Amino acid sequence: MSPGLLITRFDATLLGMAVCLLVGAVAGVLSALPTALAAGGGA
Questions:
Q1: Per-residue pLDDT tens for 1-43?
Q2: Can you give the C-alpha Rg of the chain in angstroms?
Q3: With the CA atoms of 18, 21, 22 and 27 taken in that order, what torsion angle do they form, in degrees rounded to the nearest 10?
Q4: Does the reported pTM lie above 0.70?
Q5: C-alpha–C-alpha distance, residues 2 and 14, integer Å
Q6: Phi then psi dihedrals of residue 4, to 5 deg
Q7: Does residue 3 sit in helix, strand or coil?
Q8: How far apart are CA 20 and CA 14, in angstroms?
C-alpha cells in the first residue's frame, strides 16, 4: 500500500473533528433558517 492510502490515528482524529464541525454547522444553519424567514426575510 502507498503511504497516501494509510490513515493514521491522527488523521482519523482530524477527519472526525472536521466531520463533527461540518455537521454542527449544517445543523445550525438548518435550525436558524426557519427563524430568519419567520423574522421577515433572511439576514
A1: 566 667 788 888 999 999 999 999 999 888 888 887 777 765 5
A2: 18
A3: 160
A4: no
A5: 20
A6: -70, -25
A7: helix
A8: 10
